[in-house]
Amino acid sequence: MNALDWGILIAYALVNLVAFALMGLDKRRARRDAWRVREKTLLLWCACFGALGGLTGMRVFRHKTRHAAFSVGVPAMMVVQLALLTVYCVYGRG
After folding, report:
1. Global confidence as pTM
2. What is the model's pLDDT at position 16?
3. Max alpha carbon distance in the chain (Å)?
4. Please, what's the b/e burial string for 37-59 (b: 16 or more CB within 10 A of its CB; e: otherwise)?
């Protein structure tokens, strides 16, 4: 693995960690009837290669599982993101 591969791996892990944490934070705030994380923000982090963390957060915290944008959209984003990462690993590493 070269430096670019490590950078991509670290960035991917960090974005997914943030998406996971935001799901947990929003669930906690929902229970306390406090200020919430906007759905656009959650979906944006998922769309920016954080779908795996967002989906894991949805399952762990049982949060946003009934919203179609999340229950259908986030898994679809994850499939696309994993396909793109696979294409990069197979073809993009010059």
Report:
1. 0.93
2. 98
3. 51
4. beeeebbebbbebbbbbbbbbbe
